[in-house]
Amino acid sequence: MSSERVESEGFYEMLWDCDHCETKGLLGKSQRHCAECGAPQNPTKRYFPSPEQQQKVEGHSYEGSDRHCPACNAPMAAKANNCTQCGSPLDGAKEVQGVAAPVAPPRRKRRIWPYVLAGIALVCVAVWWFFIRTRAAQVAVTGHRWERSVAIEQFGEQDESAWRDQMPADAASMPICVRKQRSSRQVQTGEECHSERVDKKDGTFEQVKKCKPTYRSEPIDDDWCTFRARRWRKVDDVKLAGNGLSAAWPAQLPADGAPAVLGNKRAGPRTEKLILDLGSDSCDVSDSVWRKYSDGQKVKVEVRARSGHIVCSSL
Fold first, then answer.
1. What is the C-alpha separation between 32 and 38, in angstroms, rounded?
2. Strand 15-16 relative to strand 265-278: parallel, antiparallel, unpaired?
3. Coil, strand or helix: which one is 131?
């Protein structure tokens, strides 16, 4: 996306008020001395005019910020070598102070983040107290159980969907496609502009127009296609369960390496669940933990302080 566009709308006179006779609204660039009493301009008294008071400086060429004369403190142009008021050299003279453009005061918002943080803290304490807090306990192993399962897969045709450019090469039929939105793009519709005033510190200010592009979201459509493809897919599970440490896999399964022919079946992924019974509770554990303890053995564990349930990770 495009960045902010900046455009100069021209240079305008700053205003200043005389310290000596209190004449107001003198021009910062054109009137270096008070038109009433002749007193030199005090650059610290410069200010931005109201929109109705603005006077444009035609053909203005900005040369740099004014400098204070070290001897009489009069504001001198950036290219001056000597003060036109008292003749003193301007070597090492300091820049005059700039004026910040007025901005609308920020809308005061009620600070709610302390209440949000306090609420989060209370929720965290409550969760810890009711669900996480533990205590030490001793329980007896009352049994070992196991459950094993083998997925049965069959090779056949099935419906699948994908964007046209993502369809697999082995799609088994002509696809049926519909148009639908796949993404969107940002399209520029115009600009949002505002003007800012920048004190150039030479008795003028520059009015600058700053514009940011505005956009709307435009949908991008594409072909969403449904097609038939030949795949292995799960059609069944063969399960076996028992007690004790002698776990076994189900028997009489299709061959693992059956060829990809329509209707053929094969043994698929295997899953195992090992359960350790501990009093009235139980835990799904790894093979090493399952075999580590014998029936009737006393085991030190962590239990939830409120519910009494065993923290299985403490085994």
1. 9
2. unpaired
3. helix
Q: What are phi and psi of 69, to 5 degrees?
A: -65, 125
Read off the pLDDT of residues 226-282 as tens digits, 9 standing for 90 and up.
999 999 999 999 999 999 999 999 998 998 889 999 999 999 999 999 999 998 899
The answer to whether residues 78 and 87 touch, using CB atoms and an 8 Å cutoff, is: no
What is the chain's length? 315
E-assigned strand segments in 78-175: 134-163
CA atoms of 230 and 259, how far apart (whole Å):
13
Taking Cα atoms as reference points, which of 211, 217, 88, 236 lies closest to residue 150? 236
pLDDT digits (tens, 9 = 90+) for 103-114: 555 566 678 888
d(CA 236, CA 99): 80
Sequence-distant (≥ 6) Cβ neighbours of residue 210 within 8 angstroms: 4, 5, 6, 7, 193, 194, 195, 196
